[in-house]
Write a structure and sequence with these properties.
The chain has 212 residues and is α+β, with helices and mostly antiparallel strands. The chain has one domain (14-210). It is built from 5 helices and 9 strands; from the N terminus they run βαβββαβαβαββαβ. It has helices spanning 16-20, 68-71, 87-90, 121-128, 190-196; strands at residues 14-15, 35-39, 44-49, 58-66, 79-80, 94-105, 137-149, 166-173, 203-210. The strands form 2 sheets. The chain has a 7-stranded antiparallel β-sheet. A two-stranded antiparallel sheet has the order 1-5. It starts with 13 loop residues before the first strand and ends with a strand.
Length: 212
Amino acid sequence: MATEQKLEQAGNGETVASVLCTKYNWTPDDRANWRSIAFREDGVGCLKLLSDGPGTLLVCEFDWEFNEDYNGPGTAEKKVDTRQEDLEDSLRTRQIAEFAIDIKFRNSQPREEFGFGSIDIEAANSRRLKETAYEQETFFVRLEVGNFPAQHDTNPPDSEAYGKTRWAQRLSFQNKSPIPPRDRWRDSFQGMLEAMNWEIETNWFSHKLRGD
């Protein structure tokens, strides 16, 4: 499965695909160090769920493409405007696109760009995920611009940085989180999943306006 849509921009304009495929990636947190999802223009992406403990929770590369049965042709090249003129403008949430994408996780070693060349990711994923986790899923997504707080703040609650982060763009998954649901993980990881509550991770952010 490959996305062959062109990501060319006309003049200074942006497209749905160029915004989705930002080099800054998307995170539900105040920074993308621990959890992120990345989309690349060649139809490959990567979901990272890291922890500050000894083990990586999940790093899974995936294939993705726009679902043209739902969107119709030309979604990738549709022009959008993410500019915010001033603070007052940024405080108004504005939807710039709504579309469906298909995601199919790979049980493979992520490419070097995603930064895990020395870790056997394929073996780790086989211990974590059932075969059903690698079936194609369709996600209904909204792209919005505004002034968004992080869904989760990793700063200490008594620190000056806590609660200060604001993001300019939000990728909102309407029907489910892009993280594989609990029934697609092996039994030995169910306790961890209950504690993590990843089902609620439907809002992912990019392009920081404020914060460390």
